[in-house]
Design brief:
About 70% of the residues lie in helices and about 0% in strands. The protein is built from 14 helices and no strands. α3 crosses α5 and α6 crosses α8. The longest helix has about 40 residues. The radius of gyration is 23 Å and the shape is elongated.
Length: about 325
C-alpha cells in the first residue's frame, strides 16, 4: 500500500547514519543479554502483538517477517525501529536476499540499516587499493598473471566482509543466554567504543575478542591466499615446463602467523577507531553529502594506512625485501 511504502521508504545513507547513532545507544541494538523477565504473560504478549500489527498493517508483509523476530518484538527484546528496518530491508531485493542467507546477517541488517553501505564501501576501497598495488607490483606481467591477481582480490573481498561483519551491531532477536559464559559474551559491545552502558572491563574484553577474531581471520586468509598462489604457480610450471616462473612467493606459515599478529595489533585498533568515528562524528557533520564523503574518506585512509603498515611489518619480519 502507498501509505506503507511512504512510511518505510528508503532513506539516504547519511540520514540512516543519524538514526544509527541513536540506535547504538539503545539496548535493542547491542550484543547484550536481555535483562527483562524470562517469562511473559499472555496479556503482555498479546499487547505486543497488537503493537506489531499497528507497525506493519499489511498482512502480506507481516507474513514475510520471521516468527522469531515478531516474538522478539512482542517480548520486548527489540523495538519498533528494528521492525521498520526489517520492512525496509524487504523492499530491496539485494538486502532481502542477504537477510535470507543467515540469521546472523539478518540481525545485523535489522540493527544497522547502514550495514550494506559500509560493506560496499569497504569492499570497493579494498578492491581498488589492492588492484593498484597489483598493477604497480606486477607491471607488464599483470595480464599474464591475472589468475594470481584474481586470487588475491577474492581474498580481499572475503576478508573485508568478515571485518565489517565482526564489528557490526546485532539486533537482540535471540533469547537470553542460559550459561554464564554465553551471557558474558552477549553483554559485550559490538566494538569497544560503542555507545551504551558498558563497563571498562566489557570494552577491553570486546577489544581483545575482536582482535583475536581479526588475528584468526588474517592467519587463515593469508594461508589460503598464499596456498592458492603457490598452487597456481605450480600449475603454470607444469603447463609450461620450459618457462621458469618469475613469481616470488613468501613462505606460507611464517606469512600467515605474521599477518595474524598484524591484524591483531594494527587492523583491530584501526577498524575500532573507524567504527567509533562513524558512530560519534558523522551525525554531527552538516549535510548528508558531507557525512557520506567523510565515511568513504575515512575507510580509504584506513586501507591506505593498513597497506603501508603491513609493508613495514613484512620487511621487519623478513618476509619482503626492503
Amino acid at each position: 500500500p502507498a501509505a506503507a511504502a511512504t512510511q518505510f521508504r528508503a532513506r539516504p545513507v547519511a540520514t540512516q547514519l543519524r538514526r544509527l547513532n541513536n540506535l547504538h545507544s539503545s539496548p535493542f541494538a547491542r550484543n547484550r543479554a536481555w535483562t527483562g523477565s524470562s517469562t511473559l504473560t499472555a496479556d503482555g504478549f498479546e499487547a505486543g502483538n497488537d503493537r506489531f500489527k499497528k507497525i506493519v498493517s499489511d498482512a502480506a508483509v507481516q507474513s514475510l517477517i520471521d516468527k522469531d523476530v515478531q516474538d522478539a518484538y512482542n517480548e520486548g527484546r527489540i523495538d519498533e525501529t528494528a521492525i521498520q528496518n526489517y520492512v525496509r530491508v524487504l523492499k530491496n531485493p539485494i538486502t532481502k536476499w542477504l537477510m535470507g542467507t543467515s540469521k546472523a546477517m539478518r540481525d545485523r541488517l535489522i540493527a544497522n540499516p547502514f550495514f550494506l553501505n559500509l560493506l560496499g564501501i569497504e569492499i570497493a576501497v579494498g578492491l581498488a587499493a589492492t588492484a593498484v598495488a597489483q598493477i604497480q607490483q606486477r607491471g607488464d606481467q599483470f595480464i599474464q598473471q591475472i589468475d594470481l591477481v584474481l586470487a588475491d582480490l577474492s581474498i580481499v573481498v572475503a576478508a573485508n566482509i568478515a571485518l565489517v561483519t565482526a564489528l557490526s551491531p546485532v539486533a537482540a532477536v535471540a533469547r537470553p543466554a542460559t550459561t554464564k559464559f554465553a551471557a558474558a559474551l552477549d553483554s559485550l559491545p559490538s566494538f569497544a567504543a560503542q555507545k551504551g552502558n558498558f563497563t571498562m572491563g566489557q570494552r577491553l574484553a570486546c577489544f581483545m575478542l575482536k582482535g583475536a577474531q581479526f588475528a584468526a581471520l588474517g592467519a587463515i586468509s593469508s594461508a589460503f591466499g598464499q596456498g592458492a598462489a603457490t598452487a597456481l604457480v605450480t600449475a603454470r610450471e607444469k603447463m609450461n615446463p620450459g618457462v621458469p616462473s618469475d613469481v616470488q612467493l613468501s613462505p606460507i606459515l611464517p606469512t600467515a602467523l605474521n599477518f595474524g599478529a598484524y591484524m591483531f595489533l594494527s587492523s583491530n585498533p584501526r577498524y575500532q577507531i573507524v567504527n567509533a568515528f562513524e558512530q560519534s562524528v558523522l551525525p554531527k557533520l552538516p549535510g548528508d553529502m558531507a557525512r557520506t564523503i567523510s565515511s568513504t574518506v575515512a575507510r580509504v585512509y584506513n586501507n591506505y594506512l593498513g597497506g603501508i603498515t603491513w609493508i613495514m611489518w613484512a620487511r621487519w619480519a623478513g618476509l619482503q625485501a626492503s
